[in-house]
Structure formats: C-alpha cells, structure tokens
Structure prediction request, 651 residues.
Amino acid sequence: MNLDDYIKAVETLNLYAHHYYVLDDPITTDEVYDILYHKVVAYEKINQKDIQSNSPTQRVGDAIRDGFTKASHLSRMWSLEDIFDSNGLERWLTKTYKLDANISFYCEPKFDGASLNLIYEDGVLVQGITRGDGTIGELITPNVKTIQSIPLTIKHKERIEIRGEVVIFKDEFEKINQARLKNDEAVFANPRNAAAGSLRQLDSSITASRNLVFLPYGVGENTLEHKLLSDKMNFIYDLGFRKPPNSSLCNGFEGIEEIYKTMIRERESYAMMLDGMVIKVNEISSQIDMGYTVKVPRFSVAYKFPAVEKITRVKEIILQVGRTGAVTPVAIVEPTDIDGVVVERATLHNFDEIDRKDIRINDKVIILRSGDVIPKIIKVLRHERNGDEVAVIRPSTCPVCKSELLDEGVLLKCQNLACEARVVNAIMYFASKPCLNIDGLGVKIVEALFNAGFVKNVTDLFDLTLERLLSLEGFKEKKSQNLLNALENAKGCDYWRFINSLGIEHVGEVASKTLSDHFGFAFVEATKEQIITCDGIGEEMAESVLEFVRVNKEIILNLQNILQPLEPVKKEEAKENPFKSKTVVLTGTMSASRGAIKEVLENLGAKVSGSVSKKTDFLIYGEDAGSKYDKAMKLNVTCITEEEMREMLHD
Ligand code: IVH
Prediction:
C-alpha cells in the first residue's frame, strides 16, 4: 500500500461508516470493513507521519485520564423554556407573534440524552465539550471521537460549533443494563443517564463500547448565511451528520398541535427516548431580532411530553405464579396517572432485585412507564423514609397452593404438579414428545379440560371418560376416542420417560435416564447422598429432585400405579470400549436413524446427550453437521465421523 492507496482506503472506510452509522443504510459487510481497516492500521504503523486526522483509527478509545479539564464554548449554550399543554403553546405563540407576526416554525423531536458541543476548525474536529453551565463545560474530545456518527473531519473549513444531543438507543440501553445486572453492577435508571454517564468516562474505551449516537440540533458560532433554519440544518446533515427523524415545517397553532400529537402517538416507535418536541422559528433574521431573555431564546420553546416517570408509594408486594411455577414479586403502588394511563402495579423481576434495590413496603419510589410494557420501579427515594417502611420477606411457600418452593436465588419455583397456577403447563410437558408422547393434548384442549374442572392434576387425565369429553365444546366422538386411546397407550412406558414427564427443574432426558437406571422404582426414596453419586448429577439437581419428591410424592406414586411403567432391567455392565462412560453427542445425517445409533452407544455404556458442552467427550457427526459441530470444534471436543466411530469399535 502506498500513500495514495492509504488515503483512498481511509476515504472508503469513512464512506462505509457514514452509510452504516449516519444513513442507517450499510453498503458493505463487517468483514470487508475489517480487512480494509487492518490494512490501514498496518500502513499507519510504519508511516506514522502520514496518519490522516479523519482515519477511523483516530477513534480508538485508548485515552485514560485522571480527570477532565474545563473548556469554554465559543458561544453560549442556552437552555429552553418548557411548555406542557395547549394553553402554554397558545401563550407562547401570542408572545412570539407580538415580536414578529411573519414567522413559520421548524419542529423536531426533543431527544432525551446529553447535550454536546463540537468545535471544528479548518474542517477538523478539535474539541468536544459537555454543556456544563452553558459557558464552560468539560473537555471530552477523546471520548467524542469514539462516537461513530460524529465526523472527524468535515468539508466546511471555517470555524463552526455544531451542537446536538448524544443519545443511547432503547435496545442498546436494555443490553447495557442486562450486562450490568449480570456483573452485579447498578443499572442505569434511563437512557439519558446512561448516555451522560458513558460520555463522561475517564477511560475512552468504555465510551467506545456504548454505541452512542449524536443527533445534531443546531449550531453555535458559525459563518453560515442561510436565511432559514431548515436550510441550515440540511447543510449540517450534508456535512456528514445523522439527520434526526421527523423534522417538519408548519404555520401556527393548529399545525404545531397536529405534529405534537402525532409525535406523542408515535413516540414508542422511535429508536431513542423523546421527552418532547422543540419548536423553533424558522426564519434566521427573525430569530436574531427576537434574541434571548437572560436564560432562554425567545425564538424557541420545548413542548414537553407528558411525563413517563412518576413518584408513587409501594402499598404492598404480591406474588405471582407463572405457568412454569416461577414465583415473581409484583409491587402494588398507589394508583398514579402516567400519560393518561392509571398505573397500579410495577414488575420487580425477582427477589434478588428487591434486595439489590432495597425496596420496602411504604417506600416512595420513581416508576417508569414506557410503551406497552409493564411499568418498573427505577429508584427508591431513600431520603424520604420515615421509619414506616417494612422489609419484604422472601416467601418459602407457594402463594397459590401453599406447597414448599424450590429456592435457587434468582429462581423461586413452585414444583407442585397439582398447583392450579401451573397445572396446565405441567400437563402439556407431561404429554410432550420426549416425555409420554401423548397426542391430542395441545394447550387449548388442556385449558378446556382444566376450565371444565375435569383435570386438577396430571392423574385426573386418566379418569377422563368419553361422556365427559363429549360434553366439551368441539369434542366429537372420533377426537375424544383418539385422546382416550393415546392416554391408554402411554401406559407401560419406559421408566425414564415417566421420570422425565414429571418436569423436575434441571432434570432432562439424560438425567432421567441416569436416575431411572440407577434407582429404578426406588427413585422416590433416594437420599441426597445417593443421588449425587450418580454420574453427571450435581448438588443443585439433587436438591431439585428432593424438593420435588417432597411436594409430589403422593401424586408420583399414584401416577406410577396408573401408568405401570416398565422398571428398567439392570443392564449388564458394558465391556470395555472407547465410548464406555463417555458423554457423546450426535449430529448430522447418519447411515441409520439417530435413535438407533443412540441405542448402540447406550448399550456400550455411553451417555448420549443432546447438546455440546465442555463435558462432551465425543461429537459424532454425519453429513450436513451444523452448529453443534462448530461449537464442539470451538470447545476442543474430539469430533469423529460415524465411520471413525465404527472403526474405533472394531480395533
Ligand atoms: S435546541 C437554544 N433541539 O434540550 C437551545 N435542543 O432543554 C438549543 N435537546 O440543552 C436547544 N433535543 O440538550 C434543541 N431537537 C432539539 C433538542 C434539544 C434535545 C436538549 C438540548 C438542550 C435541552 C434544552
């Protein structure tokens, strides 16, 4: 690569990035971008004097500082007057028309993020400064350079300040918070805090990792001569900045109200959070004539959206039992109107979250309602506590059936097969393919049987009669008889299927087989010590089995009596062979059915599992092996073909 090639490569990379980050319309793949990027890095390493200021390598967040220095804006960064309803708008318009009757308006969303001032000199970004007090802010240039939607160079050569809002898109915000939850870090209360916090990092690589987006909304010092704000903004977008969605021009009250109402209606569909609409006089000469009060411009106003965050009080914490038996707490709060909807409850995900946020009954809290999602508590106002707050007690029994709960920290689960809250799901699982494989028990049918009072738990399925089924809507003779036959056919099943069908937390097909082979019908009497001696069964699984048996013993024995499963014959110990006691996964198309090969291996004493993990000893693959093969290779699992497997057995 020579200098010319290098400069061309930088331009090409910038074009790719512009399409990706600014126009939201990628024109290449990550791979093509990465290959070219690495060529540029290699060239710069040996030709440091040639490094261009717009090279994408200049965005890398490798600056780590002890603190920020202050810097002055070239011209003041103003704030805006807020209005909240149509009366406010009318008052503002009357006031504004008095100053100049001959005006039109430029309306655009008010983005909820952190404001930023960018100074370009001779077409190069020289400073990025936070708003601060409007006159002096913090100099965060290295962080700002990591934001891909901020051009490092622009074609306009005169000094200019470009202002805008740095935001985090809602999906990115959720991702950041999920990652923080996983790492036991405090979550950001909202995308605004996340954006502001990410911008003010001493370590630029953290800023770089947050996918911040810059949306320009105006200019500070400049030499532009446009007569209309709309033209000026189009000029800014053409310099390589991202055009924010939905700016529109209008005249007067009606037009403004219409745009405002549409924006509120559509606000959830925006990728970023909005907290209002900004109305600006479009004629620059009128703007100049109107000027500023001590605090705000007279030519612009923020028409705020109804708040989505409100302060309320936690009245009580109730427990909900989901279809799988998972018990989750829900906060009942004092009814609060948020954006026209009365909010009375807020989700809390799990008890660990209550502990982490230290939420107590009677606490004053901030709740956030966003779109159709259930509102959540984002902050506890601890300073408002007066001693009447009561700590929330972690439950040990199911609120619906009162049976003992399985408690695994984040997961609190009712395992009772007869619990009303989870019985429909329990039956569906019981009947599914890897369990008892009973045809004709789809969710609608199970719900109908449950609602009619015919099945209160799994065992009741076997008391169904033709007469009862025919009394249900949609059940004709044939359908009813088929279901009864399918139930009858489930009798005499393998014992491992019986164990698997119970739906014990953590116990799948492989563990069911292990338990079945190891204990046979004595499985319900097994102690923890005995269970953990089984290969592949750990402490957590053993606890889960014991808790399950404790709660359901009667039903299990009853079911066993009805189903008469086959007690596993103690298999003779397999002769020594390369697969004995090994964990094996099968993938791809083989010479015989997967089930047949599985049986061969199981007879050799192998455990055949459905998924690849670090514990897998062999992956045996046939034609068209896919993701399991890739995963096995990544984990350094020995991968062999079906033919190689057979060869190993013949040696
Ligand atoms: S114009 C003269 N337009 O809102 C002040 N501001 O409450 C120029 N903001 O500090 C502001 N979106 O950080 C303007 N489309 C938009 C905006 C916007 C968000 C922020 C900005 C400003 C604050 C004022």
About this structure: The radius of gyration is 33 Å. The pocket of 2-(butylsulfanyl)adenosine is lined by residues 78-80, 108, 110-111, 115, 165, 217-218, 278, 297, 300, 302 (CB under 6 Å). The longest strand covers residues 309-321. The mean pLDDT is 92.
